[in-house]
Amino acid sequence: MRWFSLDLDVSIAIFWRYFWRMTLFTIFGAVVLNEATKWWVNLHHDDPAQALMAGRIFTLIFLVLLLFYGIGIWAGHLITKPMKIRGQHIRIEVVQKDGQPVTVWRKALSCWWGFNWRNSLLFVSLATILAGFQVNPMISGIVYLPMMFVIGIFSMWWWIFHPIGRVHLVLHKEA
């Protein structure tokens, strides 16, 4: 018995390729950010206000790096490499509506934006609705991780199978 349709399985697989790379980079970056901030504060013997500012600056640097990494993932073939689901070979291609070739960075920016605006829209909407309920903050934290995962899968499905714009992700089934 199959739990999901093929298009949802493809969306899950593509989302997972993106999600685990971003998660590992975020964890690694948080550790490096913490150590860099401690090193900077210890080196300069900053007072608490300066230490807070150093933490903010290192956080901003990390967020910019995370942005470039998130876009850069789409520039390569890490996410768009062929896959096999339910015995079917599926090739992924990024194309432009008018048939013109897509440059690497246009592909990366279009793919990143196509997925992330949908993901952000859904996450902010649901988080706003959940914020209206009076619940224990620990329970809210536990709810957010599965919610992020489900929203990410749905956002990927929405982007692939209901595209908007000039650059689309196209799936080809091969025999």
Strand order of the largest sheet: 1-2-3
Unreliable stretches: none
Class by helix and strand content?
mainly alpha
H and E string: HHEEHHE
Q: Explain this structure to me?
A:
This protein is mainly alpha-helical. The chain contains 4 helices and 3 strands, in the order ααββααβ. Strands 1-2-3 form a 3-stranded antiparallel beta sheet. A hairpin with a 2-residue loop joins β1 and β2 (88-96). α1 runs antiparallel to α2 (48-75), α1 (6-44) crosses α4 (137-161) and α3 (104-131) runs antiparallel to α4. The longest helix is centred in the N-terminal third of the chain and has 39 residues, at 6-44.
Topology:
Layout (H helix, E strand, L loop, with lengths): L5 H39 L3 H28 L7 E3 L2 E9 L7 H28 L5 H25 L5 E8 L1
Antiparallel strand pairs: 1-2, 2-3
Helix pairs in contact: 1-2, 1-4, 2-3, 3-4
Provide key terms for this protein.
single chain; 175 residues; mainly alpha; three-stranded antiparallel sheet; 3 strands; 11% strand; globular
What does this entry show, briefly?
With 175 residues, the chain is mainly alpha-helical.
